[in-house]
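#dry-run=false #mode=assembly
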Amino acid sequence: MYTDPIFISVVTVTTLTAIVAVIVALKSKAREADAITEMQTAKLESEEAHGSLDSAKIHGCIDRTRRRQVESVFDVLRDAVIVVDAHGEVLHANKGASGLLLVDPSEAAGKPLADVVMDHQLTATIADARSGLPKEGRQYEQEIENDEETVAYEVHLQSVGHPDEAMHAVVTVLRDLSREREIARLKSDFVSKASHELRTPLSSIAAYIEMLEDGDAKDETTRQDFYGVISTETKRLQRMIDNLLNISQIEAGLMHIDRVSVSFDELVGRAVTNMNPQAKEKNLEIHTQLADVDLSVVGDGDMLYQVIVNLLSNAIKYTPQGGRITVAADTDNLTRSLHFSVSDTGLGIAPDQTAKVFNKFFRIENYRHVAKGTVLGLNLCQHIIETLHSGQIGLESTLGMGSKFWFSIPAERGQQKAA
Amino acid sequence: MTTTHSILIVDDEAHILQVLSLKLRNCGYTIYTAVDGEDALHQAKQSPPDLVITDVQMPYMNGLKFAHELSANSTTSHIPVVVLTARGHTLEISDTRIPNVKKVLSKPFSPRGIAELCVQLLAEVQGRPSEIRDAA
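#status=ok
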């Protein structure tokens, strides 16, 4: 009895090993099964003739079960797998291949490849892989149009047939590259935005240094102004880099935080004291409204302080002269959480922009001339509150009326403050 | 320099405006500034400068749109424009293919180089060969 070798094309690096192992097993089992079946057939005829229950039937069941198991493995894969036999007929197409097929994967077996695969180039490539002696595994990228869109695939073709056999089957595995392409695009977008934001202070630093070198600062006052700009922009650059690294570490799950009991009375008091000079410069009043309850949480005091200062700093930047800023903290016994907010009578944010303010590098273009920043501060705040402290951060804002930035984090306890 | 040329510098970064203004003033030019494209366009129509240096990413009207508007207006279409941007690597060539845009420079930039470029471009406007070929 002739045994078809099995020809497989495999795509994914992650699944390559598993698939090859399965294919090899399938091939081996197929040969074994064929031999067994041959013997079983003879035995079956003999046993059936004797009307007795036969072991061949059991072996046949085992063989079919094994095949179903292998096919089940293929169906679990997200990659598309198309197995073609030596005669160019589809042996198996898994569920992942459904978007590439003219028929349902369950109906593909036994049909000629050209009647099953939608894309002509892919059909030709597989047919080519079947011709001649088995070739070394081949890998390439191809864009394939299906009913709805064009999808980029990494295609793996690998022969597992016997090197001396001119007739061999083929297995084709195709990995959808859409997600990788999207991640690459997001990375590129991130690098582009980061580069733009880092270049801005760097431009000032480089330009002012050159001006000093060229003697364009004619007097001591101008020189001091230049030194001041270089110093300020260097610090801004440093903050951006720090924020970028912190966000990156938090996203990678590498940020270590010290969880201790933190008092918001102390954090808020310290932040307001430190930010008051900036507020005074703009004739802004900072009011504190701390509830008369225990405002303690378990968390990282330095990071929570950084969030409070960041929100307070934004309120000062975007509130015109003479405005009012209110810092409030309270607990919610029902949700056992602490609520903190910074409200201002500032410029406010348009409804279509509010959802974006926590995005990395998001800047409200019309406010660029109002204040400079790292354009990473609110994203870092979101990470500190939501990722590291299991809390929630948000804002309510009315354009031209002001904004209220708030966050809530699980409270250590919500008790009345001891008298 | 026998005639005082005027240059309009457009950037929403105060430090960039300050440093370029001082450099070019020291070179003898009359300097006007604007912090966004809208304001710059208004100024350019009111009193056309001899040269424009503009950032790209600005509020209300970005630098490329501003350059397009200048190019489309008969009273300002002759004004050469230098685009100064931190987004140089992400700009497509087609983005800056605007008739009056003579040069696109990336930030960080050299004020010295900008001053040399101004000499070159203003000489070309006057129809005489420029002395500096490798500005900025």
